[in-house]
């Protein structure tokens, strides 16, 4: 559903070396002014020199845009998509103008479903944040894999010096900067046009309204393959155990058994082995340590951390930008399986208007994707195969992956996921750029299969490797 015969170009700039999303789109019609769209701005907490790297990125953003963001998009409330606004808060508040701000419906403070969702998320985040910032947990990280997972995933939540999540306060700052009048909360099925950018419109594919879709982060192949929205019992259990770490005096109301049956483990641990009962000697036998349940609540914390990570990813705002000639640029944030599946739940727009050419299906949109921002750093469950990538059949398809492989390896994350990475290279004829590539090699591979199409993409890099940019003409 192309909008006309206007010609021009859009350059998609991906900032490198951050294991986070920060994309600047420079859109211009021939003879017109260049307009700027910033989609997310973040680096994973704990990445080496993260703040210095982000300071350089924001300086480049300011130099390139002159301080005017014609459209700002934040896809979801994760540190690796938001932290640039936090680290460079003073610069964004002082030096930048936000003409328009787009967020998902899940961030709308006047939406009852969104408010209820955040209440659940906030309780879980607070419990995990308190756990991750507790002094005793740092010592356990290297010897307990449950706690290690919690500590690693807390980097996506983002904690301040006091151990509190930073995402909500960062979003409030951006909303205040943009003002309510220029902030829009988008729903699946919306077809929207940026106020200040002619020749561009966006199809809003997600996040879904259906809670079953929001819950789903893995393919349906057995009960063990699915993870669901954060269990509030897990959050409560973590809070209880943290209180007991700091205060061994237990409130009788928190003990699941009547007092005659209660046996404080710490008291028994301090006894000499000869003073213990047979049951106690068997329980505390070093050879039986793997069977003890003292710290079983750590696995509860790990489960909650994994759920919170995927639940937040599934609230990602997903945008498909359509250029005047019908090409589509797909930005899915970190959407996981449920979000992707929901794209077929509605048409675009939801209510077809025959005078405007009717409505599109998600298949119509995916078939015209010529640039795909790969979701969640090319992880295993953030790009659908048959219902996603394999429907992106335009021969001009290129892909951009915001990942730093070494950082992923250091955290034992399989990013980029080999099978998906291979599939991307096949679908794009090896025109894939990645956040930590060897530039000369990547350029040679990218240019090898350009073809003769007049709209073929053009690749460019910052002199110091700060960013890579793909220019698409229309």
Automatic annotation (TrEMBL):
InterPro entries: Competence_DNA_uptake, RibonucZ/Hydroxyglut_hydro. It comes from the Bacteria. This is Metallo-beta-lactamase domain-containing protein.
């Amino acid at each position: 559903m192309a909008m006309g015969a206007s010609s021009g170009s859009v350059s998609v700039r991906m900032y490198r070396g951050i294991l986070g999303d920060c994309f600047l789109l420079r859109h211009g019609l021939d003879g017109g002014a260049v307009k700027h769209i910033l989609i997310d701005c973040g680096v994973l907490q704990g990445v080496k020199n993260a703040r210095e790297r982000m300071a350089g990125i924001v300086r480049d953003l300011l130099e390139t845009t002159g301080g005017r963001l014609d459209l700002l998009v934040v896809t979801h409330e994760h540190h690796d998509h938001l932290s640039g606004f936090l680290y460079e808060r003073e610069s964004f508040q002082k030096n930048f103008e936000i003409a328009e701000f787009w967020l998902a419906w899940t961030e709308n403070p006047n939406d009852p479903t969104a408010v209820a969702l955040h209440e659940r998320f906030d309780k879980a985040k607070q419990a995990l944040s308190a756990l991750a910032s507790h002094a005793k947990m740092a010592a356990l990280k290297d010897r307990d894999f449950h706690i290690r997972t919690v500590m690693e995933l807390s980097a996506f939540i983002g904690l301040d010096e006091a151990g509190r999540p930073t995402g909500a306060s960062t979003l409030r700052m951006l909303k205040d900067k943009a003002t309510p009048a220029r902030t829009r909360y988008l729903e699946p099925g919306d077809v929207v046009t940026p106020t200040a950018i002619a020749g561009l419109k966006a199809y809003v594919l997600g996040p879904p309204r259906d809670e079953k879709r929001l819950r789903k982060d893995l393919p349906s192949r057995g009960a063990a393959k699915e993870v669901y929205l954060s269990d509030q019992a897990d959050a409560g259990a973590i809070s209880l155990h943290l209180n007991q770490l700091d205060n061994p005096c237990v409130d009788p109301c928190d003990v699941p058994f009547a007092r005659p049956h209660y046996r404080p483990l710490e008291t028994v641990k301090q006894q000499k082995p000869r003073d213990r009962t047979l049951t106690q000697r068997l329980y505390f036998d070093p050879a039986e340590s793997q069977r003890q349940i003292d710290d079983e609540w750590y696995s509860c914390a790990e489960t909650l951390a994994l759920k919170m990570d995927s639940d937040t990813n599934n609230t990602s705002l997903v945008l498909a930008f359509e250029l005047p000639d019908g090409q589509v640029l797909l930005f899915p944030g970190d959407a996981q399986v449920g979000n992707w599946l929901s794209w077929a739940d509605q048409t675009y727009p939801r209510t077809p208007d025959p005078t405007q050419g009717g409505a599109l299906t998600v298949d119509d949109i995916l078939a015209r994707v010529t640039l795909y921002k790969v979701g969640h750093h090319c992880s295993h469950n953030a790009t659908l195969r048959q219902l996603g990538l394999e429907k992106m059949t335009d021969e001009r398809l290129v892909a951009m992956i915001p990942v730093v492989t070494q950082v992923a390896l250091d955290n034992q994350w399989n990013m980029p996921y080999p099978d998906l990475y291979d599939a991307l290279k096949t679908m794009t004829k090896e025109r894939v750029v990645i956040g930590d590539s060897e530039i000369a090699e990547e350029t040679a591979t990218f240019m090898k299969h350009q073809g003769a199409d007049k709209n073929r993409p053009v690749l460019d890099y910052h002199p110091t490797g700060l960013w890579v940019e793909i220019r698409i003409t229309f």
